[in-house]
Amino acid sequence: MIQIADLKTLREQISAWKKAGETIAFVPTMGNLHAGHISLVEEAHQHGTKVIVSIFVNPLQFGASEDLNKYPRTLEADAQALEAKSVDLLFTPTPDIIYPKGLEAQTSVHVPALSNIHCGKSRPGHFEGVATVVTKLFNLVQPDVACFGEKDFQQLQVIRTLTEDLCLPIRIVGVPTMREDSGLAMSSRNGYLSQQEKKQATSLYRALISMKAAIMEGEKNFEVLCEQAWKTLIDAGFERDYLTICDATSLADANHETTEFVILAAAKLGTTRLIDNIAFSR
Ligand code: PAF
Questions:
Q1: Residues 6 and 134 in one domain
Q2: 56 and 124 assigned to the same domain
Q3: Which atom of ligand 1 is nearest to the CA of 188?
Q4: Could you give the CA distance from residue 220 to residue 119 in angstroms, rounded to a whole number?
């Protein structure tokens, strides 16, 4: 596996591969890799002859009060795990390589319909940060295909939308969420949870499963359904952020005509904010 941090060497390598007719599948990450990331790498191997992974903890997508400084950085272990999965190139730029003029001066990418709802409401500026870095990484890596986890469902929709709106010739592949045996969605932030909180956290996915079952059985009062779910979540120790039943493409509120659903949830356990979702058709 080649490891590259600078743009010139990256561009030379990509251009050599393109000339040789290789196809590139890309997995952007912020590192601290777990089985969910590894499933993205495995999926990427299905779509390209060369697999590139980036590890970059993107300061532009963290709010002032968020966990940028304490975000886990485990580069050595991550590189070993990627090497074992036959990744061809690991791109590990630093913030001054990606943002040479500083964060304030960076041109940004904004996806208006999706950036200020749900997670975007709780984390102002977050999706501009994601959309901007992903666009930059796409322009650097020039992948044919890029793989993202469905765990970050809204992020995936933001990326699909920017790719379509900016006419980027990249196919976006969504990869199903990997879960612990308990049902807890795998996330780098699970490392912040105590053993007790890990047990409590399993209520989140259980609540989503019961909501889906109720909708499949014909429940139409979505507001009541959300309030009932909050009751069980609050009893389990969660603090409210949002819980919403949406159309799976627009992420607007679902209505009686909706057939493709996603239930999106974010809630805090202690100091850790967890997100999860369940998508289904009716
Ligand atoms: O999902 C993530 O790890 C990040 O948001 C991403 C897509 C790598 C952009 O920094």
A1: yes
A2: yes
A3: 3
A4: 24
Query: How many angstroms does the Cα of residue 29 sit away from the middle of ligand 1?
Result: 5
Q: How far apart are CA 64 and CA 131, in angstroms?
A: 18
Report whether residue 152 contacts ligand 1, using a CB cutoff of 6 Å.
yes
**In a domain? residue 186:** no
**By alpha-carbon position, which residue is closest to atom 5 of ligand 1?**
130
Residues annotated as catalytic (active site), given as ranges: 37
Q: Which atom of ligand 1 is nearest to the CA of 28?
A: 8
Residue ending a domain, among 148, 175, 202, is 175
Q: Is residue 203 very low, low, confident or very high in pLDDT (cuts 50, 70, 90)?
A: very high
| CATH code of the domain covering residue 70 | 3.40.50.620
Q: What is the reported pTM? A: 0.98
**Mean pLDDT score across all residues of the chain:** 98
| Nearest-angstrom CA–CA distance, 70 and 59 | 12
Of ligand 1's listed atoms, the one at least distance from the Cα of 54 is 8
Give the model confidence (pLDDT) of 126-161 as tens digits. Answer: 999 999 999 999 999 999 999 999 999 999 999 999
Query: Quick check: CB of 117 below 6 Å from ligand 1?
Result: no
Range of the domain at 215: 192-277
For residue 104, the model assigns a pLDDT of 97
Q: pLDDT at position 264, please?
A: 98
Mutation pick for ligand 1 pocket among 60, 155, 186 (CB with most ligand atoms within 8 Å): 155
**What is the number of structural domains in the chain?**
2
pLDDT given for residue 99 in this prediction = 98
- Which parts of the chain are beta strand (E)? 2-4, 24-29, 50-55, 89-91, 145-149, 171-175, 239-247, 260-269, 272-281
Look at residues 175, 208, 231 and tell me which one is the last residue of a structural domain.
175
Query: What confidence tier does 212 reach under pLDDT thresholds 50, 70, 90?
Result: very high
Let me know if residue 183 belongs to a domain: no
User: Where does the pLDDT of residue 270 fall: very low under 50, low under 70, confident under 90, or very high at 90 and above?
Assistant: very high
Checking DSSP bridges between strand 260-269 and strand 272-281, what pairing results, if any? antiparallel
Q: Is the CB of 109 under 6 A from ligand 1?
A: no
